[in-house]
Specification:
441 residues, binds ligand ISJ, isochorismate synthase, globular, isochorismate synthase activity, 22 strands, isomerase, alpha+beta, IsoChor_synthase, Anthranilate synthase, ADC_synthase
């Protein structure tokens, strides 16, 4: 998909931000369409309505557009005295590879932002400069979402066995010395009886995956564990994940439930034992190092100091465990979260090493239009603070309203085994599968 390189039209917006009393759960204010949501632990920010929307060609273009939008705002709209993330902001979702997709990347500036962080609550109202601002009253609470009913599953671009063949092809190319690592993804399609309400998914993902960032931006919904870059008043954090283990990988005798469905002492490995296996695995450690190096290399020119821990920790999620490294840095003044996302994407966690060879290999053999899966998703405020996660453990709501494309990918290295990688991709699909299939409420 190609878009003009020139900057899309820049609207003149104004905004007012006010502190509000605790509004209760922000999810209660979400309508079934046309909203954005971002939740992490107890904190959240939601966007209602659309003050401005822009299809962008790249992260760099989005950065330029948002800077221009902010520069065109009256000074008092920018909330200079307020903390990071408070005030006018834009949500966005970006394609993994703009040169190999039919999808666009998008930034959305909502009309109303409701936010809660560390026990503080705020509302920002945004409008075109010559139009009235939305009402100062709290927006009405909406009806609870209902589930989509029974779900039928089908293969996406490739069947499981075909994808295993593709993984084998990648392993051969790595053995030939053409590249060190490539991340290959697959998709599955859920078809439902009733309409899929994104709020249903958000309401299931956010409490189950509090260590992840649960998002709904445009047609993308998920709960990702990977933070590409967070900028908060000059401090940068990037959580790099690569190297994965899941209970099913530990062999049939060691799964959590035996034939009776009950756990027994002999067939259950403790979480710490599984974490130990992961943190000793040469394959996973090698894969992880490539991802950390790619992030540190991309951040370095933009930062005045950086701390890269030598040893990863194990991030335990309900479905999988990952090797994780939190890179911290101090950013050069004036560098926005979108500019850093542009520098970091695609990291080796979702693309591979070397980047160019891996990206070309993905385009050639993966057989999938990733669209916005594995691209940056998040928000940016009027000072350039923001959080851009990588859109993983997610799906795309398809235009018919009754189906969804779910994605999962795995880092392939020299000693990857196709059957294991297929198992790993299935484990990564679990959060979205469960959220869609749950029938209660
Ligand atoms: C590509 C995905 O996950 C990435 C790949 C990982 C791996 O191969 O170990 C781990 C975390 C993510 O960086 C995905 O979830 O779709």
């Amino acid at each position: 998909m190609t878009l003009p390189a020139s900057l899309p039209a820049v609207p003149r917006l104004r905004a007012i931000t006010t502190t509000i009393d605790d509004p209760g759960p922000l999810q209660d204010f979400l309508p079934p369409h046309g909203a954005s949501a971002w939740f992490h632990r107890e904190d959240g920010v939601i966007g209602l309505g659309v003050a401005a929307r822009c299809d962008v060609a790249s992260l760099a273009q989005a950065d330029a557009w948002w800077r221009a939008v902010v520069a065109a705002m009256p000074e008092e709209s920018r909330a200079d005295d307020l903390p990071s993330g408070v005030g006018p902001l834009a949500f966005g979702s970006f394609a993994f590879d703009a040169t190999h997709t039919h999808r666009t990347s998008v930034l959305v500036v909502p009309e109303v932002v409701l936010g809660s962080r560390d026990g503080h609550h705020w509302m920002t109202r945004i409008a075109l400069a010559d139009r009235p601002l939305p009402s100062a009253a709290l927006p009405p609470r909406t009806q609870s979402p209902v589930g989509p009913g029974p779900v039928a599953w089908s293969d996406g671009a490739m069947s499981g066995p075909d994808w295993e063949e593709t993984v084998a092809t990648a392993v051969r190319r790595i053995a030939d010395g053409r590249l060190q690592k490539v991340v290959l993804a697959r998709d599955v399609v859920a078809s439902t009886r009733s309409v899929i309400d994104p709020r249903w998914l958000v309401a299931r993902l956010a409490p189950r995956y509090p260590r992840c960032w649960t998002f709904w931006v445009d047609d993308m919904v998920g709960a990702t564990p990977e933070m590409l870059v967070r900028v908060d008043q000059g401090l940068v954090t990037s959580r790099v994940l690569a190297g994965t283990i899941w209970r099913g990988a530990m062999g049939p005798k060691r799964r959590t439930t035996g034939e009776t469905g009950r756990r027994s002492a002999e067939d259950t490995l403790s979480s710490s034992a599984i974490a130990e296996v992961l943190s000793q695995s040469e394959k996973n450690l090698g894969e992880h190092t490539l991802a950390v190096e790619s992030v540190a290399r991309a951040l370095a020119p933009h930062c005045t100091s950086m701390n890269v821990p030598e040893t990863p920790y194990v991030l335990e999620l309900p479905n999988v465990m990952h090797l994780a490294t939190d890179v911290n840095a101090a950013v050069r003044p004036g560098t926005t979260a979108l500019a850093l996302a542009a520098a970091l994407h695609p990291s080796a966690a979702v693309c591979g090493t070397p980047t160019d060879v891996a990206r070309a290999t993905i385009a050639e053999i993966e057989g999938l239009d990733r669209g916005r899966y594995s691209g940056p998703v998040g928000w940016i405020d009027s000072h350039g603070n923001g959080e851009w996660a990588i859109a993983l453990r997610c799906g795309r709501l398809l235009p018919d309203g009754r189906s969804m494309q779910l994605f999962a990918g795995c880092g392939i290295v020299a000693d990857s085994e196709p059957a294991n990688e297929l198992g790993e991709s299935n484990a990564k699909l679990v959060p979205m599968r469960d959220a869609l299939e749950e029938q209660r409420d």
